[in-house]
Amino acid sequence: MTFDAFQGLVNISSEDIWRDFYRNNRDKIKVKKEDVAVKNLVKISSAALSISNRKGFPLMTLRDLSEESGLSMGALYSYFSSKDDLLNMIQQQRMAAIVKVFSAHLSGIGEPLEKLRTAIQIHLYLSEVMQPWFYFSYMEAKNLSKEDRRKAIEAEVFTERIFIDIIEQGQKDRIFVDVDSMTTAAIIKALLQDWYLKRWKYESRGVSVEEYSRIVIDFVESYLLPQDNLKQEEKNGSNG
Amino acid sequence: MTFDAFQGLVNISSEDIWRDFYRNNRDKIKVKKEDVAVKNLVKISSAALSISNRKGFPLMTLRDLSEESGLSMGALYSYFSSKDDLLNMIQQQRMAAIVKVFSAHLSGIGEPLEKLRTAIQIHLYLSEVMQPWFYFSYMEAKNLSKEDRRKAIEAEVFTERIFIDIIEQGQKDRIFVDVDSMTTAAIIKALLQDWYLKRWKYESRGVSVEEYSRIVIDFVESYLLPQDNLKQEEKNGSNG
DNA sequence: GTCTATATCTGGATAGAC
DNA sequence: GTCTATCCAGATATAGAC
Predict the structure, then answer these.
(1) Residue B223 with chain A: CB contacts under 8 Å
(2) Which residue has the higher pLDDT, B101 or B237?
(3) H or E segment at A219?
């Protein structure tokens, strides 16, 4: 799948994400008109992500946020009850989006090699679309509340588990070689994370998300596929 | 080389690091007795790393630092002139150590494959010995002063350059296959970073630094070595 | 629903005794 | 060289007008 096709398919606009959020949290948000609320939640979150990803969440003052979002200090507190609450809100939304997109794209695929490729691609594409969220989420994880920290770890384990399962299925089917599945999954995650943690680096070198996806898949396959299979795969074109 | 052997060789104690630092910065530090100064610099830095790696440098108050280091607020300011100054001090020390150790261990090696293995190992071992430094340095990079930020990027490029050069030498010698050297180096760095960024994960799974080193080397070699070479290498035992 | 103005608190930094 | 006490800037959060 191309990145453009993916974008068309998931179409994760901030609007959608925050509309969902608003509906699930009507009670906590003082503003009662949905359209007004969603519009401002988008402004607030994108301002918060932009400032935080520049200087870190703890150093972002609410005056900064007020200025960049265009809302007054007082108005901000109609949308969250404390600065920490805002942090947790943003975190929550990201995790919901990941689980949703992953399930949607992987559930139909049975064949391990195709599933592995798709999982790598989907993760990279998703982190590309939601780069500020992913980066924020990684860098600010230690500041979360206890409860949200627990959720964050759960989400981390969830995605790693997906890769472990795919690898083990492939080993059972005798498609992949017999390497340690847990460690291999950890390595894959490290490579996926590098994309959103060092986006500036890849951008400055002109590497697109599709190229990076290609690279990671090749890299992983050279490790997981037996030597002779690999040669044959390459003849067939390894990307479906 | 085993991890123990490495430790014996470099023997990077906090003492040594801060004694070096003290001698290079006598003018900036108000305390004039070397032994007193070094002893307290060690206390301050290890307290600062411990607190920061728990909750982040911006959220560490000087009262926290005072409590954990056992020095009073006033005394702390005999060792640095501002909180930012402390940040830059710690950063500086880490980079000096890296350059020193890398040069010492790699300069003698000409053969690309051995050099690649050694570079991976040394980086992992070093980040293991200085884990709090490495983690801190990565997570707090955005808070550095302009000048120290520039230095940090330089250091980043320095280590990546080492890997690029090794790969290109190996390609010239027809030992490695013809993949993109820059991207491959980026991938290697991502895997090396995962070790100190997610140490808790590997620890909880009982993966030692030697095992991880073995895994990364295998992974990279399966990508860089031609198929037939690989088979032969494995027979010889790929770790020297 | 949003704004301005302000109460309250926290944390970096310093002065001066010991 | 180190400590205690204190200053003061700047931050969160809220009250009340519009």
Answers:
(1) 218-219, 222-223
(2) B101
(3) helix A209-224
